[in-house]
Write a structure and sequence with these properties.
The chain has 321 residues and is α/β, with parallel strands linked by helices. The chain has 10 helices and 14 strands. It has 2 domains: 198 residues, Rossmann fold (3-Layer(aba) Sandwich), CATH 3.40.50; 114 residues, UDP-galactose 4-epimerase, domain 1 (Alpha-Beta Complex). A 7-stranded parallel beta sheet has the order 3-2-1-4-5-6-11, with helices on both faces.
């Protein structure tokens, strides 16, 4: 019988790809999403429940109705700028909502939890590439909210029969290789879809924030990881918990970075479109270089990114731009 996985936030960008991935791997995903930023039509075939993790009665009903094997949690608010303007929104959903979810899991004795975290917990990098031993020093409410959940997970794991995997993403990108799903945040803030909107004629130009960073061409360098490679890491992490591993935390990236100008050049080549650039000032809080050291995930999970060269990422994203 197929194992039932509760995918919280499964109508969003990464969650919808994860739901589809689980189905293709023989699991039975159930999606819980309040559609505040997700899309109902992104849940292709799985059972869908509309609701919020702050609703304790709904969670109790879900865990009572289904024999849930594990929970994958993608239902966080993720915009750094918004978190600075509206921290209460982020603490209520990302922290209080997650505590509500974990409490329901304990009540119903579901003890495997895969958490979508972020490299933002590291704050301003002390060194790069960033490994899991890097100090946890977030610099905005979004990063703080993820750090708080990570601390809760550590405490729960010590005190209860509760096992978790924390997966710290660097720059999630790309889309389903078959073109069934894609990235569509509203408003869109991620660089690759914004660049492709310019290529598609939906936006006049892309703004480059800062040209004087200490990098190969003066623009910021980031580590991009394909959304399907993220999905494979989540499944491998869950399978590791099934072997009796109590808890783990992994950085998910490639260990290689691309500058903003390299990305724009690659997108222009892939799309065969001219992509005009507006040169702007640096943004506060932008680090020159953010690159993951994914060695731990590769060695301990036997995880190997398959789609995360930049050209492939952009090709897959362009199919739905």
């Amino acid at each position: 019988m197929a194992k039932t996985i509760l995918v919280v936030g499964g109508a969003g960008y990464i969650g919808s790809h994860m739901t589809d991935y689980l189905q293709r791997e023989g699991y039975n995903p159930i999606v819980l999403d309040d559609l505040s930023s997700g899309h109902r039509d992104a849940v292709l075939h799985a059972e869908f429940v509309e609701g919020n993790i702050l609703d304790s009665q709904l969670l109790d009903k879900l865990f009572s109705t289904y024999q849930i094997h594990a929970v994958m949690h993608f239902a966080s608010f993720i915009q750094v700028g918004e978190s600075v303007q509206h921290p209460a929104k982020y603490y209520q959903n990302n922290v209080s909502g997650t505590l509500n979810l974990l409490t329901a899991m304990l009540k119903h004795r579901v003890n495997k939890f895969i958490f979508s975290s972020t490299a933002a917990v590291y704050g301003e990098p002390k060194y790069t590439p960033i490994d899991e031993k890097h100090p946890i020093l977030p610099i905005n409410p979004y990063g703080h909210s993820k750090q708080m959940v990570e601390q809760m997970l550590e405490d729960f794991s010590r005190s209860y029969d509760f096992n978790y995997a924390t997966l710290r993403y660097f720059n999630a990108a790309g889309a389903d290789p078959a073109g069934k799903l894609h990235e569509r945040h509203e408003p869109e803030t991620h660089l690759i879809p914004l660049v492709l909107q310019v290529a598609a004629g939906k936006r006049e130009a892309i703004t480059l924030y800062g040209q004087d960073y200490p990098t190969i061409d003066g623009s910021c360098i980031r580590d991009y990881i394909h959304v399907i490679d993220l999905c494979s890491a989540h499944l491998l992490a869950m399978q590791q918990l099934e072997t009796g591993v109590k808890s783990c935390a992994y950085n998910l990236g490639t260990g290689h970075g691309y500058s903003v100008l390299q990305l724009i050049d690659t997108a222009s080549r892939v799309t065969q479109k001219n992509i005009p650039i507006i040169y702007g000032e640096r943004r506060a809080g932008d680090s020159a270089i953010l690159i993951a050291d994914p060695t731990a995930a590769m060695q301990e999970l036997n995880w190997q990114p398959q789609y995360s060269d930049l050209e492939t990422i952009i090709k897959h994203a362009w199919m739905e731009a």
